[in-house]
Amino acid sequence: MAKSASLQSRVTRPHNAVSWKDYYEMTKPNVVMLLLLTALVGMCLATPTWVDALTLVSGLAGIGMLSASAAVINHVVDHKIDSVMARTFNRPVAKGKVSINNALWFAGTLGAVGFVVLAVFVNMLTAWLTLASLVGYAFVYTMYLKRATPQNIVIGGLAGAAPPLLGWTAVTGEIHAHALLLVLIIFTWTPPHFWALAIHREKDYAKAKVPMLPVTHGVDFTKTSVLLYTVLLGLVCLLPYLTGMSDMIYLVGSSALNLGFLLYAIKLKFAADDQTAMKTFRFSIIHLMVLFVVLLLDHYIPVSL
What is the DSSP string of 151-200? Predict the structure, then answer.
């Protein structure tokens, strides 16, 4: 009888039954982890000593929850677009595994708890700036810019570039030029990063009627834009060293990373095959992640010329 009941349970359970993994997927954990790395570096660079444990844990938790909330809202707003794109059709809301109402409740809970954590255990400046980043990404970018202009990722990228500033303000309670310099690096990195993916998925974006740059201006124009932004990124990445914010470890590490990114961009423009755009996109993620690790190493192991 027990075996029969177990068999019946497996037979009657719907294939699209929701699980915690669906909710976890909606938070875009890989993206949030990269954002938290940049926030952590912002925290560490804001002080010559170690970051206070309460500020470190509360700051990362609050920033992480609000970032995850923005990601869930993105899943809701984009569920119709996601459903017709090969890369995203299986996302929980697009697939109908999580209802829009449940996703919004989840996003609201994450956002509210994250804001309270930052307000109570960190400071109000960080709480409001993080909330503003959520609004910028989830509403200004996702609801409007993404559908309005091929420059969507350039303008909307500012929200995704904010975490180092949030980490900095979590420790100091104030906005500093060095924190804004970290924001500028991510802001400049975002277009070549995302346009490389857009080139690879150009047909998907065209099918979904999203005016990404390869759809509106063509793939060749977008390749040129990736190359020029990569050159600009290399120049921007020199600023931490030129302003005295960082030393030789950063200069050598960032130069090597930017050279690698530039080589990918050159190949994408002049000698691309079917996989070059996706390889460029993947390298761009490694570039940013390692760049911020190098910033961290440089901060704690200063080596001057």
Answer: THHHHHHHHHT-HHHHHHHHHHSS--HHHHHHHHHHHHHHHHHHHHHHHH
Contact in structure between 112 and 173 (CB atoms under 8 Å): no
14 torsion bin: left (phi>0), alpha (psi -120 to 50), beta (else): beta
Q: Which band of pLDDT confidence, cut at 50, 70 and 90, is reported for residue 27?
A: very high
Q: 96 is written with which tokens?
A: 């109908």
**Is residue 13 pLDDT above 80, yes or no?**
no
Contact residues for 205 (Cβ-Cβ < 8 A; gap 6+): 85, 198, 212, 214, 215
Q: For 211-257, write each residue's pLDDT tens digit.
A: 999 999 999 999 999 999 999 999 999 999 999 999 999 999 999 99
pLDDT tens for each residue of 161-181: 999 999 999 999 999 999 999
| Local structure of residue 83 (DSSP, 8 states) | T
Evaluate if residue 124 carries a pLDDT over 60: yes
On whether the CB atoms of residues 136 and 158 are closer than 8 A, the answer is yes
Identify the DSSP state of 52.
Answer: P
- For the record, the structure tokens of 113 come out as 């708890």
> How far is it, in rounded angstroms, from Cα 182 to Cα 163?
9
C-beta atoms surrounding 231 within 10 Å: 16
Which tokens sit at 265? 């961009």
- What is the C-alpha separation between 236 and 230, in angstroms, rounded? 10
Spatial neighbors of 245 by CB under 8 A, at least 6 apart, are: 45, 178, 181, 239
Query: How many other C-beta atoms are found inside a 10 Å radius of the C-beta of residue 100?
Result: 13
Contact residues for 8 (Cβ-Cβ < 8 A; gap 6+): none
Residue with tokens 């697009």: 94
Reply yes or no on whether the pLDDT at 3 is more than 50.
no
Q: How far is the C-alpha of 80 from the C-alpha of 90, rounded, in Å?
A: 12
| Cα angle 137-88-149, degrees, rounded to a multiple of 5 | 45
